[in-house]
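Question (not urgent): is this output format expected?
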Amino acid sequence: LPVASVTNEKELPVIATENKINLDIAVNDNEFNLDRIIIRVNEVPLNGVEGFSLKDEKTKSLNKTIPIQLSQGKNAISVSVLNEKGVESLAHTVTVDYQSNQQKLPNLYLYTIGASKYKDDKFNLTYAAKDAQDVAALFDSTSGVFNKVIVKSAVNEEVNNELISSWKDELNKTTVDDIVCVFYAGHGILDSDLNYYLASYNIDFQNPASNGIPYESFENLLDGIPARRKLMMIDACHSGEIDKEELVAVEESFTDGNEEDLTFRAINSSATQNLGLNNSFELMKELFTDIRKSSGAVIISSAGGLEFAIEGDDWNNGVFTYSFLTGIKEMKADLNGDGFIHLSEMNDFVREEVFTLTKGRQNPTNRAEVLETDWRIW
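Got this back:
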């Protein structure tokens, strides 16, 4: 394995009063040239999933000083290096607690997307656009939790790939202590090659690569931005990780004949029909759970990889969004009764509530879950 170490570890403060430190890093490999350094703060990679490139150095050994901006509170900083063969070293971790003299509330950047109407109108949904608008409206105030709340919402005809690109530029202006949440409600589709897409207004449902929003583009919104507390929520089908146990559910009926008001955010495709153990494992590994590619975001999805996300008149929302909204409005997600709702509490509440309301037919899942530091959302 290559080796990475922090050579000035003993000189680093345990408790810092300034928001920047310098890491002196030594990396080497006995056989292969080095490819990149990965530095994570509270499991969030600095400089995005690609890290700091060393390709142009063409070297097996390097000493480098990298400045690190600290977040308020605990900073678990890990350093590793990859060689040109893609082999990653063990991580060298140091911890610094930054205690600022001026505690500031974070800004919340909340961007929501809801696609109920489509150019191909036979795939229209009832509540997806409302889901996005309801989530945006809920947080459209400071609530004493945030300094400022910056809310943007796009629905129906506004949902396209260009929108995603424009939002990335804005999120690059955040700070390390800000909170960013992106939300999508609509159809989620696997193509025949097991690539996952979120449906845009003008998507070709038979060929989702045509105008569909690739999952990678959506997650890339959160990769490499300054903000380190990042949440992605997806209320769509096939939005969770695929595992062996879920494969048996593909051919099952999700209704018992008495629930005509339910709609499934599902698109029948050859991808679902042809899924097998080997390629579903590859999808899970490559798309959802390869930690080396993680953007450091907490990702909560509405359903397992081969489940259908449900919406219905009983909730006037998708059931996942309904559970999220009621968990906050009625403080049901305050599981420990302290008057605050933290992300971990919301995660636990939504999973249990959706399972109960759908009688076990829909199970929210987590991907690339990072809760090194929990944070308050209400």
